[in-house]
């Protein structure tokens, strides 16, 4: 690795000189993941090009393959990083401090906003569904990352049932599915839906209305 890193530390600078780069593997990997996320989200696994990712990160294919193994390994790392980022923010919502109905509303609103602000996440999930979940199935990390969100939904729901505000016998996974469906569709299908029904899917008033509708529908779904 030291030989490879030393090679990558120097890149051509304007005027024909050499420009020093910091020997920082973690930063290099983070930069590669950031650029690769955009590349895979935009072009999918088959359309993305390692050469393009290397050029945009001022590194080399050799370095990318050293860190991630191959193109598929980089794609899987991008998927894991995308799920990790949304789950890290979710964990900071402090839903346990709120009454059940308010906690559920906050979770739905967060999911709606996050997915609209991170379209690359939606596109990666869409692409992975086109792969029939082939790479997600290989990742124990993603399975583990998604356990806490179901636990959070279950805790909100069970508190609501015990307080008499939510009806019994609703599967927390079904609640999570309903949240994901309402929020995901709003991003994934906004172009076609907006064109067909002449709706301003990206306008601030429309987003606010659809976020409120999503919260209201989920609350009515579980209310006693």
UniProtKB/TrEMBL annotation:
InterPro entries xrefs: Homeodomain-like_sf, HTH-type_TetR-like_transc_reg, HTH_TetR, NicS_C, Tet_transcr_reg_TetR-rel_C_sf
Domain HTH tetR-type: 26-86
Key words, A-Z: DNA-binding
PROSITE patterns given in the database record: HTH_TETR_2 (PS50977)
Domain of life: Bacteria
DNA-binding region: 49-68
Record region (Disordered): 1-27
Signal peptide: none
Pfam families the record matches: TetR_C_29 (PF17938), TetR_N (PF00440)
Name this polypeptide is given: TetR/AcrR family transcriptional regulator
Organism: Curvibacter microcysteis
